Amino acid sequence: MPFSSSIKEEALVKSRRCCCVCHEFAGVYANVHHIIQESNGGPNSLENSIVLCLRCHGEAGHYNVNHPMGNKYSPEELRSHRDWWWEWCDKNPSAPLPKTPISVSPQQITLGMKDWRTQGLFKVYNKSDEVYYQVFIKLTVDNPEIVLENLLIDIVKPKDEISAEVGPATVSGDIFRLWGIDEAGNKAIFLYLASIDPQVLCTFLLKNNTPSQSLSSNQARVSIGVCGFKQEPAAVLVRPGEMAIPFSPPENMKLQGLSILVKRTG
């Protein structure tokens, strides 16, 4: 039998949907692989699981012992790769992935306390030569006094909304701000960009509008990081006079609200 959905979910979250061997972000193409195959008595447990990209999954799972070339991945080696990567992800929850084409800086913004407020800029940069779609940026808040609806995000650069070529049409890329509870139970905001072009730098302004009387002397900090993107655009929905790009909230998120940062019609 395959892994249960809960085991798969935990392995994917612990790996940030990256390959535990090459550390490439795999997204929907991440495979939860049996370190010891079921046919050899391997259990469907988290301890026997490892997340691999398509290439590494093929190399680890389809080695031809009758025509050996190179060195086969051993269960011990796969566990070592897995454990090292899970530890790195656990210790660096907001750090950009080592091989991610999308970077965010800075990775943390201090919002101030009481009457002292700060407004922090953060930048999302596509450092590759490819267009990326459905980009999710996660902002995690460490202070329970902060109400997520009071954290506002404005676009500073570019002023024009992001767009992408989808077949014969140019589709405007709406930018959404979602807020709720993430898979770890933390307050989080997810910034959704429908697309971001090659070598494009987007700058955003994070503002804290929480009333000062509801804040203590503790500073509030927001950690920022990339949590998902795709190499293919979402399917475009069309009806007379209208066009829309559907999207799904991040996995395991308890959605509490949504607002549109950019929306252009026509």
Walkthrough of the structure:
With 266 residues, the chain is mainly beta. It has helices at residues 5-15, 54-61, 75-91, and strands spanning 31-34, 49-52, 102-105, 108-113, 116-117, 119-126, 132-141, 151-157, 162-166, 169-173, 175-181, 187-196, 201-208, 220-230, 237-239, 242-244, 254-262. It folds into two domains: 5-91, no CATH class; 102-262. The strands form five sheets. It has a seven-stranded antiparallel beta sheet with strand order 5-4-14-7-12-11-17, with no helix packed on it. A hairpin with a 2-residue loop joins strand 4 and strand 5. It starts with a helix and ends with a strand.
The strand count comes to 17
- CA-CA gap between termini: 51 Å
Q: Give the mean pLDDT.
A: 78
Main-sheet strand order equals 5-4-14-7-12-11-17
Q: What structural category characterises the helix and strand content?
A: mainly beta
Strand content: 35-45%
Q: What is the CA-atom radius of gyration, in angstroms?
A: 21 Å
- How much helix, percentage-wise, in residues? 10-25%
* Total number of distinct structural domains: 2
Instruction: Characterize the main sheet.
Output: 7 strands, antiparallel
Q: Which series of helices and strands comes N to C? A: HEEHHEEEEEEEEEEEEEEE
Low-confidence stretches: none
> What is the number of helices?
3
CA-based shape: globular
